[in-house]
Amino acid sequence: MAKIVMKFGGTSVADLDRIRHVATLVKREVDLGNQVAVVVSAMAGETNKLVGWVRELSPLHDAREYDVVVASGEQVTAGLTAIALAAIGVNARSWLGWQMPLKTSAMHGAARIEAIEVEGMIESFKPKLINERLEQGQVAVVAGFQGVAPDNRITTLGRGGSDTSAVAVAAALQADRCDIYTDVDGVYTTDPRIVPKARRLEKIAFEEMLEMASLGAKVLQTRSVETAMVHRVPVRVLSTFDAGAGGTLLCDEDDIVEKKPVTGIAYSRDEAKITLHRISDQPGVAAAIFGPLADAGINVDMIVQNVSPDGRRTDLTFTCNRNELGRAMAAIEAAAPTIGYKDITSDAHVAKVSIIGIGMRAHPGVAQTMFRTLSEKGINIQVISTSEIKVSVLISEDYVELAVRALHSAYDLDGP
Ligand code: ADP
Ligand code: ASP
Ligand code: MG
Q: Is the minimum distance from the CB of 270 to ligand 1 under 6 angstroms?
């Protein structure tokens, strides 16, 4: 007998038939004698609809009310899944964020789960009651994506946050494994929706998955990977619709024998670029630019400053999330007198493409293959950034798919 967490994403619970199907997958585990906690997302499209309503009423809405609205999708599926389970004779009960309780920070819209309780640690997330019910043979159906802030108001964990709910619940319950069921049968070398030749990975190292997720691979939320890594939760990604399919296991780097230079390719269209022209090339200018952005809570990603031809004036380009472009421009323009630039331009028609692999550390020339491949396709690189196990480039959004496919072939990732 094992204690397991099964998480089902939006497409897996998109309608009543699919919820019935999910119930049969849960029943199968229960019939094997396992204790099961299920974590569900909102029905596919539901969260987008709710977010759309909030934004339409007021772009400057209160984030606490955003959470009240947006968290409701998961409440519906938690209840429906518990009902579907009961209908096939499985003892089940739904649990909302506040009932567990899953305590989070007060950062509404993108709250962090506070330290997870594992025996003897801080009183924060200790689903004691759920554990007792599991021991009595009851299935817990947990509403993903939601928690409760210190002031008792409902919070949400950022888009894709049900993955993090699932891993956190698994850590807190000290579950034997956390199975993330979704609409693909594992983590692929790149998004299989844009590269049909993408291959499923049997295993992927936590570090690589962390980069893949944070660089745009939607299959797992970045924080879920962090949580799994810190709390040593065995996580698998599996298909809801093809029960026999292989899946992908997240593992330690040392468990990967063959370390290819590039394991996967990620892309993100959520990018925007801002360029400040003819700023003065002297100490304090970067601080004058990025100070107001930090104060406005804007995350800056890539940054490039040109060499100044005359030693006095230069240009600086940075990228941020496309949704934050308006606020970023406003923050810079408000600080214009202190920064002192001649002109400012922005471009929301850009995308970031990244190659990721722990093998990169040992293989020289990996970045060069990327640059050559893109140049052969006539794709201009606007900004580059690197870390030990990834290289990212900013390109025009028009060429994302072409770039990802070309790189996938160039690094020998294409499947049969
Ligand atoms: P869920 O609703 O189950 O949480 P998501 O839509 O959040 O599912 O994530 C699954 C999707 O992630 C897939 O349908 C796929 O298009 C996308 N995806 C992006 N990159 C990858 C990748 N490297 N491997 C697998 N899926 C990926
Ligand atoms: N329903 C939420 C979203 O669409 C959370 C999730 O699906 O993980 O972002
Ligand atoms: Mg998801």
A: no
- Provide the CATH topology of domain 3-183: Carbamate kinase (3.40.1160)
CA 190 to ligand 1: nearest atom? 23
**DSSP string covering 49-118:** HHHHHHHHH-TT--HHHHHHHHTHHHHHHHHHHHHHHHHTT--EEEE-TTTTT-BB-S-TTSPPBP----
Atom of ligand 1 lying closest to residue 212 CA: 23
Distance, CA of 249 to CA of 251 (rounded, Å): 6
CA atoms 267, 269, 271, 275: torsion sign: positive
**Residue pLDDT, tens place only, 29-77:** 999 999 999 999 999 999 999 999 999 999 878 999 999 999 999 999 9
Contact 377, 403 (CB under 8 A): yes
pLDDT for res 50: 98
State the Cα–Cα distance between residues 245 and 12, nearest whole angstrom: 15
- Which residues fall inside 5 Å of ion ligand 3, going by CB? 9, 160
DSSP classification of residue 121: S
Q: What is the phi/psi pair of residue 212, to 5°?
A: -55, -50
Residue 119's pLDDT band (cuts 50, 70, 90) = very low
Q: Does domain 265-410 have CATH number 3.90.1150.10?
A: no
| Model-wide pTM > 0.90 | yes
Q: Where are the domains of the chain?
A: 3-183, 265-410
E strands, 175-263, where? 177-182, 203-205, 235-239, 248-251
Instruction: Give dist(CA 333, CA 346) in Å, integer.
Output: 12
Give the sheet arrangement for strand 313-321, strand by strand: 300-305, 313-321, 264-280, 343-356, 390-396, 383-387
In Å, how far are 17, 52, 73, 152 from 40, measured between CA atoms? 15, 21, 10, 22
Mutate to test the pocket of ligand 2, among 41, 54, 218 (most ligand atoms within 8 A of CB): 41
Q: Is the CB of 268 under 6 A from ligand 1?
A: no
Let me know: does 285 contact 307? Beta carbons within 8 Å.
no
182 lines ligand 2 (CB under 6 A): no
- Compute the distance between CA of residue 242 and CA of residue 10 in angstroms, rounded to an integer: 16
DSSP 188: B
145-174 per-residue burial string, b: 16 or more CB within 10 A, e: under 16: bbbbbeeeebbbbbebbbbbbbbbbbbbbe
Question: pLDDT band for position 121 (50/70/90)?
Answer: very low
